[in-house]
Amino acid sequence: MSILVYTENWDGKFKKLSFEQVSYASEIAKNINTSVVALSIGNVEETELKKLGDYGASKVISVNETKLDNLANQAYAKVISQAAKKEESTILVFANNYTGKAIAPRVSVKLKAGLVSGITALPINYEPFTVRKKVFTSKAFADVIIKSPFKVLTIAQNSFGLIETENKAQIENFAPELSDEDFRTKVEDVHKITGKVLLNDAEIVVSGGRGMKGSENWGPIEELANLLGAATACSRPVSDEDWRPHDEHVGQTGKIIAPNLYFALGISGAIQHLGGVSSSKYIVAINKDNDAPIFEAADYGIIGDVHKILPELINAVKEMKAAEN
Amino acid sequence: MDFEFTEEQLMIRQAARDYAERELIQDVLERDAKAEFPTRHIKNLTDLGFMGMIVDPKYDGGGMDTISYVLAMEEISKIDSSVSVILSVHNSLVCFGIQVYGNEKQKEKYLRTLARGEKIGAFLLSEPEAGSDASMQRTLAEDKGDYYLINGVKNWISNANSASIYIVIAQTYPEKGHKGINAFIVEKDSPGISLGPHEDKMGMRSSDTHSVMFTDVKVPKENRIGEDGFGFKFAMKALEAGRIGIAAQAVGIASGALNRAIQYAKERKAFGTEIANHQAIAFKISDMAVKVENARNLCLKAAWLKDRGKPFSTASSMAKQYAADIAMEVTTEAVQILGGYGYVKEYHVERLMREAKLTQIYEGTSEIQKIVISRSLLKD
Amino acid sequence: MKILICISNVPDTTTKIRFTADNTAFDTAGIQWIINPWDELALTRAMELKETTGGTIEKITVVAVGLKDAEPTLRKTLAIGADDAVRIDAEPKDAFFVAEQLAQVAKDYDIILCGIEASDYNGSAVGGMLSEFLGIPSISSVSKLDIENGNVKVNREIDGGSETLSTEVPFVAIVQKGIALEPRIPSMRGIMMARKKPLNVIPAVETEALTEFVSYELPPAKAACKMVDAENVKELVDLLHNEAKVI
Ligand SMILES: Cc1cc2nc3c(=O)[nH]c(=O)nc-3n(C[C@H](O)[C@H](O)[C@H](O)COP(=O)(O)OP(=O)(O)OC[C@H]3O[C@@H](n4cnc5c(N)ncnc54)[C@H](O)[C@@H]3O)c2cc1C
Ligand SMILES: Cc1cc2nc3c(=O)[nH]c(=O)nc-3n(C[C@H](O)[C@H](O)[C@H](O)COP(=O)(O)OP(=O)(O)OC[C@H]3O[C@@H](n4cnc5c(N)ncnc54)[C@H](O)[C@@H]3O)c2cc1C
Q: A204-324 has which fold?
């Protein structure tokens, strides 16, 4: 028996969320007396693969196969279920991101496994196996029992931290069996966002609304984001006005994000906007209107002119960073 | 008794609500400020079938009942009564009038294009000196053998510019008083028709209201609606039905203002708490809600009677008078609840208040409704 | 080509969420039900394709797994423009159960559209599971779907970018933001025509749910927002660093 974690790399480096998932699986493994196997698909060097061991994977299975350079849902699901069979895994762990959503459901059918997506914490019970997830677009939590022997879990982002261990992983290459039938979709073109922190993965997000007044005022937002290693985002009117690209739009009709820290700068906090950011651990609001609904959702707030406060905030962050070093 | 709407009625209400909340809201303030006609919206509402929704499908209409029509009018009026008045005149005066009292030829020629919304209709009854007392028609329609020759002035005509088909009320036999009046279908591009300037109105500013001048306008005989001398009765019958639409408009205005007041009262803080927690405000909201609910029920009752082919004249007058009067009260209170914010345009309630005022005036003032109601109660 | 759209009947997204007294079920009292927003956009896109690809799309069918109370939602999709509707007569127990039910209808279609998630249980699973049941390709997080000369072209979001793909039919597209601009409002004509369009009810296949929702909880009330003086921005950084420990 084992727990299989599907890990994701970005240009050969694992994403932090994959380490989090290995940590998550290790905690479960401790409780049910089993071990964690991490699966990597892609060209990842051994030193990098070994890092998965630091978070509790006792074995890393590496699949390095050029056919799998692009995410092919059907083929990936096949590879993962073959690995699961080989490792006798009964629990499979994925991230609840685009990748996880693309392949976990297919794997679940292959293994006849109950699937619960968007899990926010360790299982609350093992007998019966019960997990907690968000429902109604984060307006509530539900406890769900998985009744089948095989279980597929997708973990909500930023809901579990990293736990380092003394453990060392054994690395193993794996050649899955694939056929042409598994590649019936062809990637014609790929557009990768580079040199930027990805909004969906970001732990800190700096977001501007109509209160920023125009695209020319985004300099300080980008500066603050750079300082904090954060991604930038915006409200819908901002992308509608073309002040910012559409892929930065968060909310009910945009991206739904759950960073640890969300800065809402000149954003009123309309219900549709909050729908996309309310799962953030902390929200900071800067708004000149003390009645703005964003303050209902925020943890920390400053009432005042964002154009005046933002430069001061940048300076304060710089000072803090300087003091740290 | 059944207070449940049908699935179809709910679907129509939702369609109207979606359109109002998604589209009308976007430029309602700007159109009000500029007194600009909602061309784009009328085209969209035509595509959605609202411009002939109660006409028999036989004549390319939507075949919907009056309840559905009332629900649609209310939803649109919550956001924008300039648009709902265009719909109301077109649907419940012009389309309804021709469908019920026009002959087959008139229906083929005019009702079809009206029902498809390809052409907009207007209803020309009021004159500079004949408002409440509509029987005092000065506009003449002389019988010239094969045609009528119309001369005179009509006042306050909604859709005067946007419409291409007019229903014109005029006097043929002045000596016969209201029994000498006729109603005609007149094409607006007939020679001899000219418009006065766009009226600069208090509210519903985005609808087009003009006076219309007739100078030797020839109208074919076949365009007369009904028997010779049926015109006044026709106008009164059309208005009976029209009042249900205006009542629904008033309900919409009032409930739109109520919704905004409720939302604001829950957000605005004064003296350390949301103003909704001050009983003076909470009770205002309660009073407003009871009025809106009463008005809505009166209006639906009138529509229900009409749909069942029962007499609805008194019911539609009651609905129109009550709904119009409470729309005025409720919008005024909504402005009060919003305080200073209520008095500026951005918060919509001052506009709703301006719109409410008109519902007490057109298609029979509140005073005239009381005459109709009291007469029906006291007549024998 | 024939398009199938899987429809989920969900509470209006502005609904205040409540549970039954023992917190074991969602309280449906007074709830207004709507078409799941992503499914509605999928329908919009299907209609656009039917209108612009000159006869390529023969038919648009909608299907839902649900009891009789899902029918108003299905009839709304007919009013918007779907050609016919199928209701699979069963309570939608979990994603696995629903996907297996849908497979019996979906096997006859070329393009099968599902939303990326339902706004109630946020499962993000039915589309992917359905494709696996059928053994056909799935393209997830689809933001654009075109048919050019009978060839299907799809854009999808991936973590860290986007891709353009071509695919054979049949396939399942799991759609999200971008697939269509706005849902369509049904017209009076559409509402009238919906009366005559077929809504077929078929029995469910014998199968089991693998998961079970046992209890619900609303998130704890949020603590009040800590206000920092505009003259003292440093304090905010302090709080974020030392109290929240997020920077
Ligand atoms: C169906 C639907 C879906 C929607 N989906 C989304 C969505 O996904 N995402 C989304 O964001 N919106 C969405 N919206 C729009 C949403 O309702 C709001 O209109 C939008 O979020 C408002 O954006 P905003 O906060 O940037 O602008 P505003 O509401 O205009 O707020 C600007 C804020 O900036 C403040 N401000 C102005 N100047 C300054 C200054 N100098 N200093 C400090 N503060 C200042 C103001 O006080 C105000 O609070 C949707 C709407 C609908 C109807
Ligand atoms: C924006 C707008 C759009 C309109 N659209 C149209 C249209 O499309 N077609 C059309 O034909 N007309 C239209 N009208 C005209 C409208 O129907 C009349 O204005 C209305 O009937 C009142 O007539 P009046 O203005 O002449 O007022 P009057 O009849 O002069 O009334 C003045 C006052 O005296 C009161 N009054 C009159 N008689 C009595 C009585 N017997 N007892 C007690 N009180 C009485 C009235 O209630 C009112 O308070 C429109 C008006 C406006 C303002």
A: Rossmann fold (3.40.50)
Pick the residue whose CA is nearest to atom 50 on ligand 1: A272
DSSP, res B174:
G
- What CATH code is assigned to B7-115? 1.10.540.10
**Type and span of the H or E element at B10:** helix B7-19
Instruction: Report how far apart the first and last C-alpha atoms of chain C are (Å, whole number).
Output: 53
C22-33 confidence digits (pLDDT tens): 999 999 998 989
B370: left (phi over 0), alpha (psi -120 to 50) or beta: alpha
Three-state SS annotation for B219-276: EEHHHECCCCCCHHHHHHHHHHHHHHHHHHHHHHHHHHHHHHHHHHHHHCEECCEEHH
- Ligand closest to A298 (CA) is 1
Measured distance CA(A94)–CA(A83) in Å, rounded: 14
3.40.50.11540, 3.40.640.10, 3.40.50.620, 3.30.710.10: which CATH number matches A2-182?
3.40.50.620
The stretch A81-102 carries a mean pLDDT of 97
Nearest CA to ligand 1 atom 51: A272
How far apart are the C-alpha atoms of A133 and A117, rounded to whole Å? 7
CATH for C172: 3.40.50.620
When pLDDT is cut at 50, 70 and 90, the band that residue A325 belongs to is: confident
Q: Is B166 in the pocket of ligand 2 (CB under 6 A)?
A: no
What is the CATH architecture assignment of B121-232?
Answer: Beta Barrel (2.40)
* % of chain B at pLDDT higher than 90: 98
Q: What is the mean pLDDT of chain B?
A: 97
Average pLDDT score over residue span C188-204: 95
Which residues in chain B have their CB less than 8 angstroms from residue C189's CB? 49, 62
pTM (predicted TM-score): 0.89
Q: Kindly report, as residue ranges, where domains of CATH 3.40.50.1220 are found in chain A.
A: 204-324
What is residue B267's predicted lDDT score, i.e. its pLDDT?
A: 87
Residue A192: the pLDDT is 84
Say whether C185 and B19 touch across the interface (CB within 8 A): yes
Spatial CA neighbour of C34 closest among B15, A135, B19 = B15
Catalytic residues of B: 363
C87-104 pLDDT, tens digit each: 999 999 999 999 999 999
pLDDT tops 80 at residue A196: no
The pLDDT of residue C126 is above 90: yes
Q: Which CATH superfamily does the domain covering B235-378 fall into?
A: Butyryl-CoA Dehydrogenase, subunit A, domain 3 (1.20.140.10)
Interface test with C, best of B4, B5, B8 (most C CBs within 10 A): B8
How far apart are the C-alpha atoms of C37 and B147, rounded to whole Å? 58
Which of B267, B275, B338, B347 is the best mutation test for A, with the most CBs of A within 10 A?
B267
Q: Is the pLDDT of residue A193 over 90?
A: no
- Could you report the per-residue pLDDT of B292-307, keeping only the tens digit for each? 999 999 999 999 999 9
Write the single-letter amino acid at A84: A
**Angstrom distance (rounded) from CA B296 to CA B302:** 10
In this complex, do B18 and C79 lie within 8 Å of one another by their Cβ atoms?
A: no
Mean pLDDT of C209-221: 93
Q: Where in chain A is the domain with CATH 3.40.50.620?
A: 2-182
Subunit partners of chain B (3 or more CB pairs within 8 A): A, C
CATH 1.20.140.10 maps onto chain B at 235-378
Among C163, C218, C247, whose Cβ lies nearest the Cβ of A187?
Answer: C163
Domain range enclosing C15: 2-216
Q: Give the nearest chain B residue to A295 (CA atoms).
A: B267
- Tens digit of each residue's pLDDT (9 = 90 or more) over A106-143: 999 999 999 999 999 999 999 999 999 999 988 899 99
Atom of ligand 2 nearest to the CA of B125: 11
Kindly state the percentage of chain B with pLDDT values over 70. Answer: 100
Summarize chain C as % helix, strand, coil (round to 5): 30, 30, 40
